Amino acid sequence: MAERPSKTTAPKTSKQKKKKKISGKKWFYGLFFTAIIAIVCGLIGYLLIVLNGERVLTENANKLTMGEASIIYDVNGNEISRLSDPNENREIAEFSEIPKQLLDAIVATEDQRFYEHSGIDFFAIGRAVVKDVIARSAVEGASTITQQLAKNVFLTADKTFFRKATEASIAVALEHKMTKQEILTMYLNRIFFGKRVHGVKEAAKYYFDTDLDKLELWQIATIAAMPKAPNRYNPINHPEDSMNRRAVVLKLMYDQGLITAAEMEEAKAVVYEIPKNHEERNTEKYPAFIDYVVEEAMEKTGKSEEELRIGGFRIYTSLNPQAQDTMDTQFNDDDNFEKSKDDQQVQGAMIIIDHRDGTIQALTGGRDYVKKGLNRVEVPRQPGSAFKPIISYGPALETGKYYPWTVLANDKKCYGSYCPTDRWGATAVTMQQAIKDSRNLASVWMLNQVGLKQGFAFSSKLGIELEKDDRNLTAALGGLSKGATPMQMATAYSVFANGGKSVDPHAISKIEGKNNYKYEYKAPPSKQLMSESTAYYLTEMMQTVVQKGGTGTRAAIDRPLAGKTGTTQHGIPGYKGSGIRDAWFVGYTPEWTAAVWMGYDKTNVEHILKTGSSQAASMFSKVMKPAMKDVAKSSFKKPQGIKENKPPATITNFKAVFIPEEMKVQLSWDPYQDGKVTYQVYRKEASESDFIRFVDSLTSTGVDDMSAFPGMTYEYYVVAYDAEQDLESAPSQKVKISIPETEVNPDVPMEPNPDEPGGVEPTPPVEGGDGEPTLPPTDGTDPGTTEPPGSGNGTGEPTPTPTPNTGTNTNNSNNALGNTETGGNT
Q1: Which domains does the chain have, with CATH numbers?
Q2: What is the bridge-based pairing of β-strands 692-698 and 702-705?
Q3: Sign of the CA dihedral 636, 640, 646, 649?
Q4: Cα separation of 625 and 563, whole Å?
Q5: 110 given a catalytic annotation
Q6: CB distance 448 to 441 below 8 Å
């Protein structure tokens, strides 16, 4: 009996046969749904990329705003400095400024399909993947210009998958948010070109010293060659590598039909040369002036330094390059300063102001000044005798009771415990002569007459506020607790030069910025701080300071000039040697005012000045004369209604002759030629401290002193007196004469006849001089211009023999308040 086939075998075979046979319909639906799923996944992925890119852009929107260097310009509109991030220099270029050939070069080199893709170039990605697989490493990138911009703005430079994915998502978002033109412009403004240079505009200036619209093809190709490796392909550091890479860029441009073969070959052959002014352009000039401008800009705009530095502002200033370059040259010359014993050099500062409008023409904060250094133009120092017009003579003139011809007491006297001295002794002197000679006693007497309240108020109006500790008569000699800055001194003297009207020193004329931002300087309302006559009289008097016999002759230049010297004692406790802490000259022409200070930053026994204000005065002349060569000359204006009743002129040719046979001194002088005057004769015996009026109301031009005693020495001078105006002249030259001892000799006639044998000739006249030995000048100046460091020491001790110099009187050390360091910083 035959076996039945298994029921399970046949169906199994049939089912297997059915699985092998799949209909076309099923294939269609399978592929269809697979494609749908892939498309959906792709759309979702793309959407995620876009959303992620949009999120990054939203969270970091501020990064799209580029920091742009602010530029500072001089008075002629020429760039002098850039304020930027310490790590970069950048100037923003508008799309319209960028040459088409430069746009073509960048696109041809960095992203040939830039105008076709939407942020991601899948063709380039595929090509890069193949090359990376073959090389078994990441050897080629496929970043588009948009991706490079995304990386530059938002990301780091690593090549991880997640960083690349984020880069792609940002690139897509950028393409949605911005046009191709905007993307390319932002890219060209952000791209790094080595040497702290960012953006094509700055690259053109840095490497070729030219503007974008003037770039030649070879220069364009050189710039386009650099983004791949800025440090390797910049033409300054690696000229050969740069030239080779330039050739690659030119070949790409030729292959894409952007240039001809001839243009390519010509551009390839050019050999790069560093611009002649490259070092000068990229070495920051005028650092002290720039620092001052930044401080002023912060004050005027209310913006922080960071905002100013990268805000892309255009700051226009009053800097006069002729004046500033001259100043820098002189301050860089070591011969203009005293030699130091060690590395701590004598310092200095100077500022020039056009007092007609308050514009600062030039300033320097010190020798070897560095950016953000100590700007000594704004550091207070003791002003010494340069302060006398501010604290003593200006306030006196302002009362209307005193004039340049007013005779001031010059007596050696004490005011409480304060006993000022100077080398001239107790000779009455006009205010003008007191300023010319820089006499201490007259200045102290004048301040005492006017009063401290008046003197301090006058100083305050000129911008120099004094401390409570300064409320004593040492202020008459510039002995202040804190002192005054060169800026303050120049500003105060600017008021003298400006007819008594206020002056507002400033360096910025206007500032322009983005979004139509604009600041423009507007001068504050002018104030009449003193009468025109006071300013005029001060100017008249201080012109004598730079004339023959004045203390500031070395400051004289080839135009009208008024000014004042100033020196201060060293003020070192326990040190009794000579020496000066601060030396000044502050002066003005009808157009400009300038202040010069010299001294050590830290004064001690090893670091004190020896030559006084002569070098400060010389510096003034050396800077101002060439600095003002293009400034039209003018003269000081005389205000209307100025009082002209000047005192009689000083009597000349004053002589004294001893007549032995008559035992008298015969005095004579030349007659006064201009008006009606009488004469007053003063006499002092050697042992006496003060002159006394010997005779007055003389109408003749001579008188005999019959009261002269043998063995005595007498000193005389004469003045002319105008009774109608109650004015007297300055003292004449003093003459000194000694009366010989006499012995009774019966063999010799009591009254010898000089015409007979054995007769005695009259003693010859002694002309001029004050009887003191004249020290030869050590610095080429007239001995009459010297102002010894030892004068006015306030100690009550005899003043040591001075070493001549052209500085002003030093300050006194002991005042009524017991201050022992008024001659220097306290």
Answers
A1: 77-279 (1.10.3810.10), 319-506+528-638+788-826 (3.40.710.10), 655-738 (2.60.40.10)
A2: unpaired
A3: positive
A4: 15
A5: yes
A6: no
pTM of the model: 0.65
Q: Which of 110, 167, 398, 821 is catalytic?
A: 110
pLDDT tens for 343-391 read: 899 999 999 999 999 999 999 999 988 777 889 999 999 999 999 999 9
Q: Could you give the maximum distance between any two Cα atoms of the chain, in Å?
A: 207
Tokens of 77: 């509109």
Query: Rounded to whole angstroms, what are the CA distances from 95 to 180, 213, 396?
Result: 11, 12, 66
Task: Give the closest residue to 83 by CA, choosing from 463, 513, 442, 500.
Answer: 513
Q: How many beta carbons lie within 10 A of that of residue 630, not counting itself? A: 9
Cβ-defined contacts of 251-260 (< 8 Å, 24+): 252/108, 252/109, 252/112, 253/104, 253/105, 253/108, 253/221, 256/108, 256/112, 258/101, 258/104, 258/105, 258/108, 259/101, 259/217
Helix boundaries (H) for 498-644: 532-543, 614-627
User: What are the tokens at 558?
Assistant: 């080839």
* Residue 495: Cβ within 10 Å count: 27
Q: How far apart are CA 547 and CA 536, in angstroms?
A: 17
3-state secondary structure of 397: helix
Local structure of residue 800 (DSSP, 8 states): P
Nearest Cα to Cα of residue 153 among 46, 62, 52, 51 = 62
Task: For the chain, state the CA radius of gyration.
Answer: 43
Distance (Å, whole) CA 224 – CA 229: 11
Told to judge if 756 belongs to the known catalytic residues of this protein, a careful annotator would answer no
Quote the CA–CA distance of 265 and 247 in Å, as a whole number. 9
**From the candidates 385, 459, 614, 813, which is the catalytic residue?**
385
Quote the CA–CA distance of 619 and 599 in Å, as a whole number.
13
How far is the C-alpha of 108 from the C-alpha of 86, rounded, in Å?
32
**CA 775 to chain centroid:** 38
Which tens digits make up the pLDDT trace of 109-162? 988 888 888 777 766 655 555 555 555 444 445 588 888 877 766 654 444 445
